[in-house]
Write a structure and sequence with these properties.
The structure is a single chain. The protein is α+β, with helices and mostly antiparallel strands and 315 residues long. 23% of the residues lie in helices and 24% in strands. The chain contains 6 helices and 19 strands. The protein has a 5-stranded antiparallel beta sheet with strand order 6-7-13-11-12. A hairpin with a 2-residue loop joins strand 9 and strand 10.
Amino acid sequence: MMAAPRTDHLIDRLPKARGRLIADAPLHRYAWFRVGGAAEVLFEPADRDDLAAMLRSVPPGVPITVIGAASNLLIRDGGVAGLVIRLTRGFATISVDGDTVVAGAGAMDINVARQAAAAGLGGLEFLSGVPGSVGGALRMNAGAYGREIADVLIDAEAIGRDGNVTKTTAADMGFSYRHTTVAEDLIFVSARFRGAADDPRKIAARMAEIRAAREDSQPIRSRTGGSTFKNPPRQKAWQLIDRAGCRGLVRGGARVSEQHCNFLINTGSATAADLEGLGEEIRRRVKAATGVVLEWEIRRIGDAPAHGLREVGDE
């Protein structure tokens, strides 16, 4: 018997695109945790014109989510409704003009640092310690080893749901610790960063120090999502987690890293619910032991577990 034809799927209500449009696309293959459900529709635009045309045509009320490199992201098991946008090769270009580095939002942070170093520009070495891509780094004011995006950004370009391009200066980003105030419906497509001329050998040495520090202190070869919680003011999240006795804590296939206890690890069989549930258990224990309510740094998207998950602070 032939299968019944698909009817009224979101993909049938979207315009044709030059990039890839995929219905019911598994997202776990892109996530660094290697967990998560499917996107109702996944869109990988060919370039910014392709992206703008799609945004103008998405039916009103359809949610739009951008996942970038999915490095600091937890995709829930129920998947993500609406249109999920992933910026790939058409947004990964990097160029250097004098002391300015221009990078697409899909460019990996480490590649921006490497290209700046090759051009003899310092100040961007910290990006070699930031997993993920430029778009995500802009959105969360990513940082590492004493520097953050706010320190080096000149301006950024983003496309809104109306398909129009907006240029935002660093002063307009509303930067704070791991946060910006830029409207959520703006999708970053490129950014300009300021570097400073320096001896390439010194730049290379600083990047080598960052690489060694990461390898020594972080489980970078595990299925992880980077730092799980933000550091509270004048405190370190990992110290609070350790004080609450959570180092090595296990839930299903998820475990708190013993190397760095602000990292969650998929040991191979974890679900997104395991990881999120473990994170909430950490938050409960830290609050009970120290009075501090940790804030998630990892972004969580998609449908919640079937039985729900009450977050610390909701009770």
